[in-house]
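Section 3.1: Structural characterization of target chains.
Under the original work plan, the team committed to producing a structural model for every single-chain target entering the pipeline before any wet-lab resources were allocated. The record below documents one such target. The sequence was received from the expression subgroup and is listed exactly as submitted; it comprises 313 residues.
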Amino acid sequence: MTIATDQERHAAVTYLHGAGAHFVLCAGKRPLWRRWQKRRPPLDICLTHPEIGLVPFSVGTSALDVDVGEIGELIEAAPPLVTVPSPRGHHSYYRDSCPRGNRRFDLFGCRGEVRSAKGFLRFYPGGPEKLAAALRRPANENRFIFPADLFEAARVDAPRALPVEGPRAFRVRPPTDLRRLELAAVGERNGLLFDHIRFWAYPQAKGHDLAAWIARVRNRARQLAALIPEPLPWREVDQVALSIATWTWAGGGPFDHSPAAQRRRQRRSAEARRQASAPRVDRARRMQAAGASTDEIMAATGASRRTVFRWLA
């Protein structure tokens, strides 16, 4: 098998991007960014990131992710636009004008999932080049069409046009009342270190390489952590740095993580928990008034002994 050069891969990714491709940055088989459905990385990041995926419908296709079985009968019954090998099977792309949701299938001895507008497929070596070459060929409206009659893939709303976004830089300064790390007490080390790192990270230019940005944030985090009188373990420092690096790379800013916003979320979550548990609390109290034992209340409500004691205190 001929291995594509970096130049060929760049040309293919550039062509697909120009055709409207919604790329997904990946770490293994998982998306690198949260809320990847609403974000499109810019072309320069897609060209340099080693692992990318594609939402098939963004380039006018739907795809079959075949994980189990031989695809000979399948592609004979429904010839695809192109088939690209994957580590566990094959990705077969078809032209499609209807956005579809994810759906499992078992047909012609093959098993897998439909991928269209609500899912993505990771590219493996040769994938971008083969798909770009297939899409460059003149379109024949009667060939390589997604065989909707064979697959029960639900129709869904077409995704709206998404902005191409890169990592943002927020021009903010740390709060004037942010305590110095040299004065951090044992119980406030994590929170104070988190605030110092994130307010340093927000205005920084983050470049086009996530791995380099994570390393840069980690180095800064360790420098700042060394100022704490009783430093945290490096493992905890690195975890804080990773959280901030990925959050800011994905566009997270100070307004989402402000102390006021955190307090609002905490109040909402506490109120939601109270409302959700209110019927069980009422039942526990009625059972107690009727003379039920703690074990009986636990069995009826599904709560732990400690929770029952807290409800009845």
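The radius of gyration is 26 Å.
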